[in-house]
Amino acid sequence: MLLENMLEYNRKFVEDGQPIREPSLYPNKNAVVLTCMEPQIESLLRNALDLQDGDVEMIKNAGGFVSDPYDSVMRSLLIAVYERRADEVFVIGHYGCWMKDFDAEAAIERMKLQGVSEESMEGFNNNKGLAEWLNGSQQVEEMVRTSVSTIENHPLLPEDTPVHGLIVDPSTGKLDVIVYGF
User: Fold this and answer.
1) For an engineered disulfide with 137, which of 20, 69, 103, 143 has Cβ 3.0 to 4.6 Å away?
2) For the segment 42-66, what is each residue's pLDDT rounded down to a tens digit?
3) What is the homologous superfamily of the domain 29-99+139-182 according to CATH?
């Protein structure tokens, strides 16, 4: 089991007395990045943007997408702005995002196979059907533009907060600016 392996590694890590940096209360570059949860994207962005630990707040979810102005992603962005001194917001999608091929209906079938009841799925109500909610958006540029618009038009975000939208190429690290926030 993965947990057992992690706990064993952690025990050795602590016994070896690895140096631990005290975390900074605020990001060094006063920014927050929303990006995809794909495992390699965070390290790619760190390398492509010369980011060190503690430089930015990093928020990750499926597709780097803000689907609702009152979801937990937006809550985290607002907390980063007001409590963690993030002066700029970066929404960074990536080409080849697996969300473009995501099949919500297949995911729902897997839920059923793993015991989620029809009643639970029918009881789901987020002003959308379950499949629509799971899907988000299929095109990375559309996800970035929609997320930027949702964030910058949020009534609780300071009007002078720039919200940028970018797409990174995972094979080269090159960034394309989709929305230059002002």
Assistant:
1) 143
2) 999 999 999 988 899 999 998 898 9
3) Carbonic anhydrase (3.40.1050.10)
